[in-house]
Amino acid sequence: MGDDGRRRVGRIVEVEAYGGPPDRASHARAGRTPRTAVMFGPPGLAYVYLVYGMYDCLNVVSGPNGTASAVLVRAVEPLEGVEAMVAARRSFAARHSRSTAAARIGHDIAVGPGRLCAAFGIDRGFTGADLCDPGGILRLEPAAPGDRPPVPAWTPRIGVAYAGEPWASLAWRLVDRTSRALSGPVPAGAPPDADPEPEPGDPAGRRSGSQG
DNA sequence: AGTTGGATGGTCT
DNA sequence: GACCATCCAACTG
Predict the structure, then answer these.
(1) Which residue in A77, A105, A120, A180 has a CA-CA distance of 20 to 30 Å to A32?
(2) Which nucleotide is nearest to A34 (CA to C1')?
């Protein structure tokens, strides 16, 4: 395939799990609504929502059909197409009258759910897209064989204090502790070189790509 | 280095 | 009409 130079690839290093209607922090807490309908369908599809009137956030519908569980993608390390990401961030800033913001974008080019979507040009129009379709414009891919192995760690989710307990404190945020591109607290513990704690969960270190 | 408040609009009560 | 799964600039020290 010819690379037209606009292809963007990133390593997912931070995600959060949302558990459907019982989870008071989930958008599915109110049951099925027009906005959240896609969450109640089959897994592997994108659910993109607008938050604070300005920022789009990307979720992957997960779990069995009908459970309305989803995974919020919070941070990505750029692997390919950094310049396209910078351009997209600048474009976003310009559209929102934030002139100086994108001037010095560094490793945090796609750190935080809003920045990530801005960098990849993801908006609500991607809701319903099949992220597991190898031919999709926006898709998930397995980690490349030579990729640095992630060191998983779990923390509470960010920005969900309103949900009350136990939802606000559940350690449903999963990060690759070796990454410098995290949007929130890095859990204390042994340095990345030491033996990682064995815990269940999805491995981080998949790839997300988009071309526009 | 850490804290605070403004921008902003769709969604649900 | 209130509430946000955020980000950035402008303060404080």
Answers:
(1) A120
(2) B11
